[in-house]
Amino acid sequence: MAIRVLLVDDQPLLRTGFRMILEAEHDLAVVGEAGDGVQALEQVRALQPDVVLMDIRMPRMDGVEATRQITGPGRDGPAKVLVLTTFDLDEYVVEALRAGASGFLLKDAPAAELVQAIRVVAAGEAMLAPSITRRLLDKYAGKLPSGDEPVPQALHTLTEREVEVLKLVARGLSNAEIAAELFVSETTVKTHVGHVLTKLGLRDRVQAAVYAYESGLVRPGTA
Question: Where in the sequence is the signal peptide annotated (predicted)?
């Protein structure tokens, strides 16, 4: 079954470009387009896409609020949201991740990277690009805790190794990279990540990374 993709961007030319790239792939199908967040919600309900490629700044309803409604409680379908961003709008990306996005991608990313990101998100994983993640969280450190706040009680439910894994997830490392860092198997890392998500009540590793910063476990510039 092809992965059903909804394109959401207020620039028709960009939507056309994305459509051409995605429709060249045998396992991807563009099922619809929307020019703003309100249309996106309507299309998600009507078309039940697997992945929504979501712009941030749009008229009527921006991508952050649309993401919140698509992925929040009472949502109408299983759609995952992959946020599109440019460096001059990065301040919105952390908010989109908090709202429930499964990852983010630069608008000028290579076509192969766009295609792979959609596949990763559709599979239930998170698209957490290390280089962008660190730059974002470091740049907007002022919006995150200073580290002086009390550590959330939930963190005390994690084992020492699970805390190590959470810190490495916050750095944007993949399971393979974490395995190499800790000298364990990738399967072991997957198990630890699963335990972290379950114990903290988080959806995916993107939320885990944001949680690590918001809780003060990791401070921007020190991860």
Answer: none
Looking at the chain, how many residues does it have?
Answer: 223
Distance CA 8, CA 14 (A): 10
Q: Which residues of 26-60 are buried (b: 16+ CB within 10 A; e: fewer)?
A: eebebbbbbbbbbbbbebbeebebbbbbbbbebee
Cα 95 to Cα 52: distance, rounded to the nearest angstrom: 17
| The pairing of beta strand 51-54 with beta strand 3-8 | parallel
Query: What DSSP string describes 17-32?
Result: HHHHHHHTSTTEEEEE
Residue 195 tokens read as 């335990």
Alpha-carbon gap, residue 143 to 137, rounded angstroms: 9
Which residue bears the tokens 């990540």? 193
Asked if residues 180 and 147 have their Cβ atoms less than 8 Å apart, the reply is: no
pLDDT in tens, 177-189: 899 999 999 899 9
Q: Are 81 and 105 in contact (CB under 8 A)?
A: no
Q: Which segments of the chain are extended strands (E)?
A: 3-8, 28-34, 51-54, 80-85, 103-106
* Residue 129 contacts residue 172 (beta carbons within 8 Å): yes
Instruction: Return the HEC string of 151-193.
Output: CCHHHHHCCHHHHHHHHHHHCCCCHHHHHHHHCCCHHHHHHHH
pLDDT 10s digits, 121-179: 888 777 766 556 666 656 555 555 444 555 567 888 999 999 999 998 887 777 888 99
The reported pTM is: 0.71
